[in-house]
Structures are given as C-alpha cells and as structure tokens.
C-alpha cells in the first residue's frame, strides 16, 4: 500500500478537522466559524470578480490586499504576508523558521496542528505544560533552542495571555523565531502586531476565518519584520506562487475595509459569549474565562462525552477531544443568540435526564 510513498508521506500524521456535515437545520458549534455572514461588500466584491478575468492568474504579490491589511495595522505592505488560510502560513513558517534537530516549544494543550507540522517537516518539539488553571506558563518558553509557537488566545482553552507576558517570551528568545498564532485575537483585547515593529524575531499570524466570517474563502495573514516575511515568500514561491485566488483577494480586501461591520459582528459575538458563560455557569459548568469565539467547559456530573453525544442526537454539534487531561471538557463555538438559546435548552434537558 505504501510502497510508492516518500519517507515524508509515510511520516505524516495528518490533522483531523472538526466534522462538516451536509445537513439542514443543524446547529454547528464545533469549528469556531462565525455565525454571521461576511460583510455585504465582501459578497459584492467576490461576485464582481466572477467574470472572464478568471482566465488570468491572480496578482502573485497581492499588492492591494497587502496594502489594505498594512494600513489597518499601521505597518507597511512589506511587513505583510497572505496565505491560503492561516494553516498554510503556519506550514510555511515551520518550513521557513524551524530546523530539524533544534526542538521548538509549544503548550501541551494547544492547537493540534502544531504536532502535525512538526512531524511532517521533521521538527522536534517539547511541550510546555499549562498551569493548573490552564494558563500559559511564560517561563517555560524562555530560551528555546529551536523557536516557539503558541496561539493567543490559546485553543482550545480560550485563555488570553497578556501582552507583557508575550513580550517577555519574545525577549527571552532573541535568536529564534516566536510565532504568535492570533486566530482568535479579535475576540480578545490587544494584538501583538505592534510588538513586531520592535522585535525582529516576532511573527504574528491571523486569519479571516473567524472574526471576518470567511472560513470558506481561505485567507490568512502574517505580520512581521521584512526579513521574516521574505522567508515566507521564499517558501510560498517554492511551493505555489498563486495560493490566494482572484475571488479571495477581492473578498478579503473588502473584509479588511469594512471595519464598522466587522466591529459590530465581533461585539455581538462577544456579548453572546458572555451571556453563554453566565448561563452555563448557572447550569453547573466550570467555564474558562474566554477571550475567543468559543468556550471551554466541563460539568461536575455530566461527562463531556455524554454531553457531546446527546447534543449530537439533537443535531447540535460541539467539539469533544477525548484526550487527557481535557477528556472531561468540551469546546463550544459561539453561535447566534437563537442558536445558543436552543443549545442551552438542550443542555438543560440533558442535565435533568
Ligand atoms: C489556533 C488556530 N490557528 C489557526 C487556525 C486555522 O485557521 P485558518 O486556516 O482557517 O485560517 C485555527 C482554526 O481553527 C486555529 O484554531
């Protein structure tokens, strides 16, 4: 079966994403998608690109998109890289900044794609245990031999690490790259993007999949010192020089421009999150103080697996990992107010059973 596989193909342990079901009326709270549509201008811009120009390749340098992102973050276009989802940029980063034989560090409970990249690119890694309360122990990341990567807020714990702590991790790894994966940062307080102006070894990666409601468009971005961005460009151009297509570039530009819509939807999700945390707490859940568009929770009497399965029977999907030491936790994405009300009613019934 594997006779023709390269050692890389044999070594790979591919990531398994949360399930995508093709069913009507399902309440989908399992992959941290945005429950609201993208900004109307985004749809218009994408529709406007559906024409004969599709026979032409898209802009390989994505100048307009990079300039739009740069002006939002007050950096220059040379500080911006765009990829086909932030997962692709994470992959390019492992290729561009990490070295076999020099172990990198990431938290023991974190985004499960990091070990996947480590495996396929032959990068050794050390996991740094979270503290008892699931917060990141910054000292554990100091002086890493090969580099550091962590999400902020962390996933699936939803907890945000303050910028002073992020800065200390960057300062204590002067000779290696520190990657802060800010997939959920817009639901938290402050991004580390400004620190990239001060530290040449800091790369911030973000996505349009969550706060900008464009998971289906596949657009991620990275911000950092020009030399780091150039390494990513070298990796991209050694792999596929056209990763973000015409439709994605057009839509992403509008998503960055429509700040008012983005802020309104983000605030709405945050308000629903806070209400959900309150309701779950009163139903006997231990809910971590989330700074993301999902919550991480466990219940004293109802096992996480039972909850996941019983909700599934009711066409409500949440994420259950089933691995130690989070085997009794579930991750619940924040949906619309109506979806969360239905979810909470179902949870209440399950607990009563
Ligand atoms: C921490 C983290 N980083 C990155 C991603 C990837 O996002 P995308 O490839 O859609 O940009 C996710 C997706 O769930 C995530 O949870």
Structural class: alpha/beta
Which cofactor or ligand species appear? pyridoxal-5'-phosphate
Strand content: 5-15%
Largest sheet composition: 5 strands, mixed
How much is the average pLDDT? 96
CATH architecture label of the largest domain: 3-Layer(aba) Sandwich
CATH class of the largest domain: Alpha Beta
Total helix count?
11
Which key features would you list for this structure?
353 residues; alpha/beta; Aspartate Aminotransferase, domain 1; Aspartate Aminotransferase, domain 2; 2 domains; 11 helices; 13 strands; 14% strand; binds pyridoxal-5'-phosphate
Give a verbal description of the structure.
The protein has eleven helices and 13 strands. The protein is α/β, with parallel strands linked by helices and 353 residues long. The strands form four sheets. A five-stranded mixed sheet has the order 2-8-7-6-5, with helices on both faces. Strand 9 (285-287) and strand 10 form a beta hairpin. Helix 3 runs parallel beside helix 8 and helix 4 packs across helix 5 (113-120). The radius of gyration is 20 Å and the shape is globular. Pyridoxal-5'-phosphate (PLP) is lined by residues 32, 85-87, 111, 151, 155, 181, 183, 207, 209, 215, 220.
């Amino acid at each position: 079966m594997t006779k023709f596989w390269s050692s890389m193909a044999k070594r790979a342990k591919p990531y398994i994403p949360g399930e995508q079901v093709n069913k009507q009326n399902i309440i989908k709270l399992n992959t941290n998608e945005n429950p609201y549509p993208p900004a109307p201008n985004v749809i218009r811009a994408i529709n406007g690109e559906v024409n004969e120009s599709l026979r032409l390749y898209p802009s390989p340098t994505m100048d307009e998109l990079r300039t739009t992102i740069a002006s939002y973050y007050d950096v220059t276009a040379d500080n911006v890289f765009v990829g086909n989802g932030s997962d692709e940029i994470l992959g390019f980063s492992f290729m561009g900044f990490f070295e076999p034989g020099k172990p990198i560090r990431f938290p023991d409970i974190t985004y499960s794609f990091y070990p996947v990249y480590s495996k396929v690119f032959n990068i050794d890694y050390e996991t740094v245990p979270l503290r008892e309360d699931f917060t990141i122990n910054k000292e554990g990341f100091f002086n890493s031999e090969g580099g550091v990567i962590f999400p902020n807020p962390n996933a699936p714990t939803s907890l945000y690490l303050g910028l002073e702590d992020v800065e200390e991790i960057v300062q204590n790894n002067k000779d290696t790259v520190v990657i802060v994966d800010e997939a959920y940062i817009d639901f938290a307080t402050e991004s580390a993007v400004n620190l990239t102006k001060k530290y040449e070894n800091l790369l911030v990666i973000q996505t349009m999949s969550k706060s900008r409601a464009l998971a289906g468009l596949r657009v991620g971005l990275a911000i950092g010192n020009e030399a780091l961005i150039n390494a990513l460009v070298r990796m991209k151009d050694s792999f596929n020089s056209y990763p973000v297509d015409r439709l994605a570039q057009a839509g992403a530009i509008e998503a960055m421009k429509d700040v008012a819509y983005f802020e309104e939807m983000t605030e709405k999700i945050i308000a629903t999150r806070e209400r959900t945390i309150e309701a779950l707490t009163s139903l006997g859940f231990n809910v971590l103080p989330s700074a993301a568009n999902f919550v991480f929770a466990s219940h004293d009497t109802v096992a996480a697996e039972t909850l996941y399965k019983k909700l599934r029977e009711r066409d409500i999907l949440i994420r259950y990992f089933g691995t130690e030491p989070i085997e009794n936790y579930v991750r619940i994405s924040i949906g619309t107010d109506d979806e969360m009300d239905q979810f909470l009613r179902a949870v209440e019934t399950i607990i009563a059973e």
